[in-house]
Design brief:
Distance between the termini: 115 Å
Order of helices and strands: HHEEHEHHEEEEHHEEHHHEE
Length: 319
């Protein structure tokens, strides 16, 4: 074979196409992407399984109660919970009302509110959407309190009102005044409603430049209520845009200011971290330990969401 042909063959054998390294690199990248996608897909499936396990249907609600006169001469707080035996059919309604200690007959007003709400809920069998149920019960409450007082006694007596309704795994609520509705979940305490006190007006005035910002925190009128039952026509009412989806283990707390004014959030969280039977007593002991000479009446209803087979039902009502 001529030497020039041998040289040509050797050149062809030793010279690789320019596109080959690029193709090899591209194939490697594709393989890495494919492997990464498989790993991410497997992780997502595991996370989805964990979420599914954690989001088991809520089958029962454990009701815990705290109710004490404190250092006051009279008990003006009232509370009530609908019959737990009807939870699967109509849902569970909890009501807390704080009669205003600075006004006359606050106990009569708060008791009338709780009784009206529970009787109305039982009578209506919880018919309608959660919003409709809560708004209707509040409307009846306003009418009953206004009838009880008469126009000449508006603002001479009154009460706050918070109501929570659980249906399945959804929680809806309504509030007037400064009693609180909170969610305890994963060691965190989240306030769901807004307090209707004069501080809200001070905040607006400060933002609008009408008063110094410092007055929001120093004005002695800041804790005064600007919306409550007993004033005639309500000024403000709190209602969520949509219900809150609940998870097993969640605790919902409806409480008067006698609880949250006495305890820090961290102290409330410590009590709620205990099991459902121990939490109310832990709150009670924590407030008593403070030994405030002017301790207000204090009331809390704690609703613990449970999955699995329903346990024994316990009726809870105080009005």
């Amino acid at each position: 074979m001529p030497e020039w042909m041998i040289g040509l063959l050797e050149t062809q054998q030793l010279t690789l196409p320019l596109w080959l390294p690029v193709a090899a690199l591209g194939l490697t990248v594709v393989l890495l992407i494919w492997v990464t996608a498989l790993l991410l897909s497997a992780r997502r499936r595991k996370n989805a399984e964990r979420i599914a396990d954690f989001s088991d249907p809520i089958t029962s609600i454990h009701v815990g109660k705290l109710h004490d006169q404190g250092a006051r001469e009279y008990q003006q707080d009232s509370f009530g919970v609908s019959d737990e035996k009807t939870y699967s059919a109509t849902g569970l309604l909890a009501v807390v009302a704080d009669g205003m200690g600075g006004l006359a007959d606050g106990d009569r007003v708060s008791a009338a509110l709780v009784e009206t709400a529970l009787d109305g809920f039982m009578y209506s069998q919880g018919q309608g959407t959660p919003d409709q149920v809560l708004l209707t019960l509040t409307q009846w409450g306003v009418q009953e309190v206004n009838r009880l007082l008469g126009p000449e006694n508006y603002r001479k007596s009154g009460s706050t009102l918070v109501m929570g309704l659980i249906r399945g795994d959804l929680f809806s609520w309504i509030s007037v005044g400064d009693s609180r509705i909170c969610l305890y979940r994963n060691g965190q305490l989240l306030q769901l409603n807004r307090e209707h006190d004069f501080k809200q007006k001070l905040i607006l005035q400060a933002v609008n430049g009408e008063i110094p910002l410092q007055e929001v925190y120093t004005d002695k009128r800041s804790s005064g209520l600007i919306s409550f039952l007993g004033m005639g026509q309500l000024e403000y009412i709190d209602l969520p845009v949509e219900p809150l989806r609940l998870l097993p283990g969640d605790k919902l707390v409806l409480m008067t200011d006698g609880v949250y004014n006495a305890l820090k959030d961290s102290e409330i969280i410590t009590a709620l971290a205990l099991d459902e039977d121990a939490a109310p007593e832990a709150l009670h002991r924590a407030i008593q330990k403070k030994a405030f000479q002017d301790q207000d009446n204090y009331t809390a209803v704690i609703l613990t969401c449970k999955a699995g087979k329903p346990g024994k039902n316990r009726k809870g009502r105080q009005a």
